[in-house]
Amino acid sequence: MEVEYDDSGWQGRTKQQSTTEELHEDNPQKTIQECLEKFLTPDYIMEPGIFTQLKRYFQSGGSPEEVISMLSENYKAVAQMANLLAEWLILAGVKVTEVQAMVENHLKEMILKSFDPKKADTIFTEEGETPDWLTEMIDHYTWRSLIYRLAEEYPDCLMLNFTIKLISDAGFQSEITSISTAAQQIEVFSRVLKTSIVKFLNNPDDVHGAIQECARMVCHGQHTYVYSQVLIQVLSQEQKGGFNMKRLSQEIIKYALQNNQNVTPITMALNGSAVYPQACQALTSMLTRNTLNPADITVLFRNYSGSDPPPIDLIRNPQFLELLVDALFRSGVKINPEHKPKYVFLLAYASSVIDQPAKKRPLTERTLNKDELKSTIQAIEKAHAICNVDQGSTELIAELQTLYNCIKYPVVGVGVIRWIENVVMEPSYFKLSTDSCPTHLAVLDEVAGVHPTLQQQILFLLIRLFESKQDELEILVQLEMKKVILDRMVNLLTRGCVVPVLRYIKQCCAIEDTDISLIRYFVTEVLETITHPYSAEFVQLFLPMVENEEITGTMRGEGDNDPVSEFIVHCKAHYTTV
């Protein structure tokens, strides 16, 4: 439902009320009676509309003595009694902030219990404009949070929706975490979306969290999804930072698919694929079913290997690329040898060819750079041949040099992570492994060193391994296995993935479900690896672990010459810690 909040709408209601009042003014006795009924209500003298009603009453010839008597007799002083009780509590020794919170929380409870959206909408009818008290209310977080809760419960209340807009206009849109509240109005949603996108762009250390937050909001409904994706697609055309917006768009698509939302028709409508009906139909068929099939793959292969291929963005669809990587690198997936080269070609084409539309010329004259296509195809084929064979660590060592050469290509790095994930997550993997560092995990170190953008994926895999149940292993063997995984995390840290690794270990400390000896091992390895200068964020995350007596008590010497003491002394001297 679209809601308009222009001034004329509220003025229109005011005029209607004014017309009713004018009819009553023609009948003074009726006006006086109407006013007296209001004056009889408890504490009416405290109502915002008291002066308006007194003016009508006197203009109609009402008696001053009568109105004074009625207002006095019905004055219960509820608000004043509350203030008096608050003063008594303060005199009794209760902190002012506690008393204020007590009063505010009780008021919030009463409002939540008795709120009437119809009566709330009449506020604008009576006032004719935005009440001053409402403007004052939104200056305080306590009452803004109340508005957010009420807006969730009563999404159709005009007064609440208008107040949400006022809050957004005042610059507090980052507080509006309820998607259903923001999605009611395009102006509010646009501001909240902007805040979310800015957070994604300005927080490189927490990209995953920012993406999840933005995607959850965008995928709230079809209208929010279409509006946001169109906006993001326009921004992705910008030369400066456009690739970041394209990445955000793809992550949103991925999030929608993970939540069983079929966004394929919208995606295909926005990417201009209708100009290429054959490729569009083949791709739509596979994306809708979330599975590849040789017939549609053949259609795409024929289109992209021809002299006038469709735009490359068509097959740079996250879902399609995931399906191709799964087909070629996930263990147990069998592909017909006759069609395998087509799968390899499409994956290599999507990841290596540069499609540059020529400016001020027809689309058919765009430039295609295929310099790396052939070498990428060869790398995928070699890596696929290694990964597709069920071999242990010993046999894999002989293929390492070939695999390392192939890993230099980003698409192979993605595929190898998928393959290793499939292998090491098998319950029997560590039970059968006899190496101090399993070869598959050593390969992850190589991928992390060559491709920094894949480090987050590798960290997620290591976290899953670290938290996995290995009940078949003895306790000491489990501890040794987890130390190996911590070594891989330390390697990630040395490669630049510092903050995400430290945040995870800090989380393990806070939850207290990790053996303290493992935390001690991690801290020891990091201290042996690092040297100053340190960033303030690094110190903030790592120093509390180093200072923890339970973790590092046994690592300290009598003087200040041990690594633990040296680190603490250096941080205390050069950094302000919270």
Automatic annotation (TrEMBL):
Pfam family of the protein (one): TH1
Name the UniProt record assigns to this protein: Negative elongation factor D
Organism: Drosophila virilis
Bias-annotated ranges (Polar residues): 11-20
GO MF assignments: RNA binding
Family: Belongs to the NELF-D family.
Keyword Chaperone: no
GO biological process terms, semicolon-separated: negative regulation of transcription elongation by RNA polymerase II
Subcellular location: Nucleus
Keyword annotations: Nucleus, Repressor, Transcription, Transcription regulation
GO cellular component, one term: NELF complex
Region (Disordered): 1-28
Gene: Dvir\GJ19362
Domain of life: Eukaryota
Xref: InterPro entries: TH1
